[in-house]
Specification:
With 311 residues, the chain is an alpha/beta fold. 33% of the residues lie in helices and 20% in strands. Helix 8 runs antiparallel to helix 9. The longest helix has 16 residues. Keywords: Kinase, Transferase.
Length: 311
């Protein structure tokens, strides 16, 4: 039986707005499409759950209406919620999507960053499970402190995944160097790769990671329409996993879909290369679906892989 994905990454309300271009300073631009949804770790968890693995959300949530809405959305997706019930409410993120698919965000934080060690210690994590954390949360001193106290206490056989994000550039390098030796799966895009190198003060990703990550660690670097590169062990040569052909309609949550399917596939026992190929298939499906909310299930992923093998 596959282990569970336990996400201790935050969830937040999002307002995606598609704009033809950024407004000039002091100016205004009209959005062509907008919506309100749930972001943060939510699409990662949904993508994993739709691959058939059990998913638990241990995000720090409050008692306000935003938190209630998120908890209901998680429940509808079959994701189990480990409630913290901090007084207050989670924040919101405005996501601007330009015509070429480039995404920029503005975050108004709430209680999602107020993670506590005592709460994490109440989570039951077993051998074979995977704990998911996001670099987006690592700028919070409270989150840093809670994680640093909790990670060494995890049961043997629990794997740890870290998904990078733009906020990695704001994380203290010394603290990051203490956490990276615990990581079993590190996933990032091209821009985040450069940010990580700069944070760790190295010329190449290989130099940045070979001294701090465990020999068995899996490193996945997404390359947009080119697919991704997978390295099993920071000192090994990366293996290219090509992308599936796709017509780009929307890039929202594509990286999240890739990460969620990658995590679920590893939990289901697929080797890292096959897991990355399944994640690439999920990404190809996502870019063809507008709105960033139609995360693919396992059947859709397998069907695309079958079709590709026949051509």
């Amino acid at each position: 039986m596959a282990g569970s994905l336990v996400a201790v990454a935050s969830v937040i309300l999002t307002m995606p707005m598609h704009v033809p271009h950024f407004p000039d300073r002091g100016g205004e631009v009209t959005a062509t499409m907008s919506s309100v949804g749930v972001g943060g770790a939510f699409p990662v968890m949904v993508a994993a759950r739709r691959q058939g693995v059990e998913v638990w959300s241990a995000a720090c949530m409050g008692t306000g209406p935003n938190s209630t809405m998120v908890a209901e959305e998680l429940g509808r997706e079959g994701i189990r919620v480990i409630s913290s019930d901090v007084v207050g409410d989670i924040g919101m993120k405005l996501v601007l999507v330009e015509a070429d698919g480039y995404i920029s965000s503005v975050v108004a934080p709430g209680v999602e960053a107020e993670q506590e060690l005592g709460f994490l210690r109440r989570i039951q994590v077993s051998a074979g499970d995977m704990v998911y954390i996001s670099a987006s949360d690592l700028v919070s001193p409270a989150y840093q402190s809670a994680l640093e106290g909790w990670l060494p206490e995890l049961t043997d056989g629990v794997s740890l995944t870290l998904a990078l994000g733009p906020q990695i550039k704001e994380v203290d390098p010394e603290w990051l160097a203490r956490i990276l030796p615990n990581i079993d799966l590190l996933t990032m895009n091209r821009r985040e790769t450069d940010l990580l190198r700069n944070v760790l003060g190295r010329e190449t990703l290989h130099e940045a990671l070979e001294q701090v990550m465990k020999p068995s660690a899996v490193i996945v670097r997404r390359e947009s329409s080119r697919g991704c590169w997978v390295t099993v062990g920071p000192s090994s040569n990366p293996v290219e996993v090509p992308a599936f052909p796709s017509k780009v309609r929307d890039t929202a949550a594509v990286g999240d879909a890739h990460t969620g399917v990658l995590c679920a596939s590893l939990l289901r026992g697929f080797d890292p290369i096959t897991a990355a190929r399944r994640a690439n298939a999920a990404g190809a499906i996502m870019v063809g679906r507008p709105g960033g909310r139609n995360l693919p299930d396992s059947e859709a992923v397998e069907e695309l892989m079958r079709q590709s093998s026949l051509t």
